[in-house]
Structure formats: structure tokens, C-alpha cells
Amino acid sequence: MVCTWGGVRDMLRILVLHGPNLNLLGNREESIYGAATLAMIDGSLNKLSLELGVELVIRQSNLEGELVSWVQEARNGYHGIIINPAAYTHTSVAIRDALAAVNLPTVEVHLSNIYRREEFRHHSYISGVALAQICGFGPCGYLLALRGLCEQLAGYRAKHIPGIPSAPPGTDTDAH
Ligand code: DQA
Prior knowledge:
Elements: E1 12-18, H1 30-33, H2 38-52, E2 54-60, H3 64-73, E3 80-84, H4 93-102, E4 106-110, E5 132-135, H5 140-160
Parallel strand pairs: 1-2, 1-3, 3-4, 4-5
The structure holds 1,3,4-trihydroxy-5-OXO-cyclohexanecarboxylic acid.
């Protein structure tokens, strides 16, 4: 199952970034974040990516600078980003600037509904440079983000690369 991109036989490549403390999921404030571990979330993302025919690279860091460097690296060969910046959502101009610089379609994900929580979580530095924000659906939010991003990227291809048939993600184009 392969999606073509720009007429070149090339899979969509999406970078998934998890921010600080998300490595503790499963053992962390379960009433807010649930029982799923990060490995479980990554496993379900990888499963969906096979179904959709997209390539995922998934990384987690507790360090702001490392996240900034990975966002910068996404310029080389990625088509979109899914990011849960965790606490850096509310503090990091550096991650926002990196996302603005690479200018790739980005979906911001939060497990919890940040607008129902403490006031300091109501502001996101990321949402202003994101294509979309999904929050409050728990781990399912990552899957929604991946589906939504694939739809958007297929739409972009149809609009900006005329003459190239727009097979929706997940369509088997091996026969062409
Ligand atoms: C979070 C929400 C943030 O406010 C918090 O700092 C996190 C996780 C979420 O996924 O709900 O670490 O991004």
C-alpha cells in the first residue's frame, strides 16, 4: 500500500513528536491522562500508518532544544508533523518559531482538554502556527491527527500538482 506524492513513487513521511513527561504515560496522573502508555499510543499510530500507507518517525524528548532540532530536521524529507509539546505548549516560543520556520502542516495534539484545566494551560504558543489542534480525546487524538493530516496532504497534492491523480491515502497505487 503506497501513496504517491508529486508523481514520484514516494510515501508520505510524517514526524510525530512527544514532549516532556509523556514517557511517563500509564504511570502519570491517570485520572487526567489515562492508563495507556506511550508505547501503546505509538503502537496504534504505527498500525494506522500501515493502513494509510504513510511512513512515521516517532520521537519523545524531555528537552526543549532537542524537540527544536527535530522540528528543524523535518525540513529534510517530511511532509507533515504531529506534535504534543506537553508543558512546552504553554511556554515555548522556540518550538513555535521552529515550526513556523519549517512551515510544514502541523497538528497539535493533547490528551487532555487543556481548556478545562488550569488557566495557565489555556494558552498555546503552538496553535498559532498549527494547521489544527486536537485535545481531550486521549490517545485517540493522535489517530485523528494522523487521519486529518493525511486528508489535508492528499488535498494539497490535488490542488497544487495538477495532472497528478489524487489517490486518497490508503489507496493501493502499486498497479500504476
Ligand atoms: C498535555 C497537556 C499539557 O498541559 C501538559 O503539560 C502535558 C500533557 C496533554 O497531552 O494533555 O504534559 O499536553
